[in-house]
Each structure stands twice: as C-alpha cells, then as structure tokens.
Amino acid sequence: MFHQILNFLRLKRQVPSAKWINDVHLAMKYTPDVIFLEQRPEWLVFIYGEDKLDHPANKRLVEAKYCLDGYTVSEYVLWKYHGGKDHWSWALPIDNPFNPGLKEDWNLRPGHLCRIKGQVFRCSTSTIFLLDEAYKNGVEFERRYVSLTVPYRFLLENNQGIKSVSERYEEIISAWMYIGNQKFWEQVMDGSFSPVRLYQPTNEIIKPYYSFERIEHEDE
C-alpha cells in the first residue's frame, strides 16, 4: 500500500475510488506526514530498544543502514516491559511516574531522568512507514525530531611517528526518535514494567546513561 500511495501522489492520472481513499486513510493512520518524508531519500532514525542490532526486532531495519552510536541530548526514563517472551523498551519523556522528583539524585537508582544511548540508522521513507506502524505513531508513541550527541576522537601521530588519541569531542546531529506517549502508557503501566539499567562512564564528568543491552532479555 505504501508504494501505491506514492505512485498515485506522483502520477495523479486517475480519480481514486472511495475504497482506495479509505484504504489510504487507514494505511496513513500512523504516518500522516508521508508526503513530507518523501522530500528526502533517507532520514536518520535513533534506535534505542528492541530494534537495535543483534536484537530480535532488528528485522524491521533490514533495509536500513547502521551509521554510528549516539546519545540523546534530552533526558528520559527508559522503561522495559516483561511479558512472556516480550522484552521491549521505550522512552517516556517525563519523570518516573512511580518515583517523581528524582532528577537531581545521581546515585544510579532506577527511575532517573538520564540520557539514552542508542544506534543511528539511515532509513528510507518505506522503513519509517513500517516503524510508524509497529510503534503506532501518534497513539502509543510519538515520532519526534530530536538532537543527539555523537562522541568521537582523532588518531594523532607526531613527527617521530608516535601515535596517540585526541581528547574527546562531541558533535550534535538530529534524527527521528520514537518516544512513549505519556497519556497512553500511564494508563497501562503495572508491575510488568521496570527501568532499564543505568551505566556510569569511567569518566565521572560524563553523566550516566540508559542502554538497552541483550542482558535485559535475561531478567525475569
């Protein structure tokens, strides 16, 4: 249906039937901005949960290309859900609804607002179309264009041929990110939900961050 929609919008050679219009309406339910997305051949998408490389749901990104790792500039609580074989995570852009007011307490107890580490992919509009449907964009999640920090270092070599690594730099980029819809999730969250692990970098100047790793699948 996605390609049929695009072909019709590009060609405009026939009057669509009422059934076709209804089918298009349903197909575009989660991607109302499909025409805007088509203005570019590819978009960057920040993936932080089950769709990451080496995770079960990564098959949705089979046509996408992994670029690099990055961190959110904004801070979130990153939750995971345990339901039988289902272990997935999502970002909730508010304080932990069960333990509010913990933002300034950095002793790494679960439920804090922190950055999220994830992976950046290059995705076509058709891939975003699939992700929008999987995440139920506009209902359970909201796809937003957010800022990310990408850390990097240079490999240096002096006149004597001695190699060293430069200090740490960061670059700001933008990408789409799926963020949990507060109004939806606060109605359904129960004991099956828990925060993802927090990690503290060895350099204490760098703030802790959430990272959904394969070990999360092993939790009971």
Describe the overall structure.
The chain is α+β, with helices and mostly antiparallel strands and 220 residues long. The protein folds into two domains: 1-30, no CATH class; 40-218, Hypothetical upf0131 protein ytfp, CATH 3.10.490. The chain is 18% helix and 33% strand. It has helices at residues 2-11, 18-27, 34-37, 125-135, 182-185, and strands at residues 43-47, 65-72, 77-83, 86-92, 115-123, 141-152, 155-157, 163-165, 169-180, 193-195, 198-199, 209-210. Strands 1-5-2-6-9 form a five-stranded mixed beta barrel. Strands 4-3-10 form a three-stranded antiparallel sheet, with no helix packed on it. It has a two-stranded antiparallel sheet with strand order 7-8. Strand 3 (77-83) and strand 4 form a beta hairpin. The radius of gyration is 20 Å and the shape is globular. Mean pLDDT is 78; it is low at 95-109.
CATH class of the largest domain: Alpha Beta
Care to count the β-strands?
12
Termini Cα gap: 39 Å
Largest sheet: 5 strands, mixed, barrel
Shape: globular
In the CATH hierarchy, the architecture of the largest domain is Roll
Q: What's the average pLDDT?
A: 78
CATH homologous superfamily identity of the largest domain: Gamma-glutamyl cyclotransferase-like
Spatial strand sequence of the major β-sheet:
1-5-2-6-9
